[in-house]
TrEMBL record:
<keyword id="KW-1003">Cell membrane</keyword>
<dbReference type="Pfam" id="PF04995">
    <property type="entry name" value="CcmD"/>
</dbReference>
<dbReference type="GO" id="GO:0015886">
    <property type="term" value="P:heme transport"/>
</dbReference>
<keyword id="KW-0812">Transmembrane</keyword>
<keyword id="KW-1133">Transmembrane helix</keyword>
<comment type="similarity">
    <text>Belongs to the CcmD/CycX/HelD family.</text>
</comment>
<keyword id="KW-0813">Transport</keyword>
<keyword id="KW-0997">Cell inner membrane</keyword>
<keyword id="KW-0472">Membrane</keyword>
<dbReference type="InterPro" id="IPR007078">
    <property type="entry name" value="Haem_export_protD_CcmD"/>
</dbReference>
<comment type="function">
    <text>Required for the export of heme to the periplasm for the biogenesis of c-type cytochromes.</text>
</comment>
<feature type="transmembrane region" description="Helical">
    <location>
        <begin position="15"/>
        <end position="35"/>
    </location>
</feature>
<dbReference type="GO" id="GO:0005886">
    <property type="term" value="C:plasma membrane"/>
</dbReference>
<dbReference type="GO" id="GO:0017004">
    <property type="term" value="P:cytochrome complex assembly"/>
</dbReference>
<protein>
    <recommendedName>
        <fullName>Heme exporter protein D</fullName>
    </recommendedName>
</protein>
<keyword id="KW-0201">Cytochrome c-type biogenesis</keyword>
Length: 57
């Protein structure tokens, strides 16, 4: 498929661009949610008590 066909407003071009756009938006959303969750987990105090031998659970 040529670039002209992809970006033309006739045929399947708009649907392909929409599908790529939605896919990129979902990837971005997932990356943002994972980043936010990791940041919150890092900032939260550790709720689990430490083991006596110093090993990590």
């Amino acid at each position: 498929m040529s670039w002209d066909a992809l970006f033309s407003m006739q045929g399947h071009g708009p649907y392909l661009l929409g599908a790529y756009g939605v896919t990129l938006a979902l990837i971005g959303l997932e990356a943002f949610v994972l980043w936010r969750r990791a940041r919150a987990r890092r900032a939260a105090p550790d709720a689990r008590p430490a083991r006596a031998d110093g090993a990590r659970p």
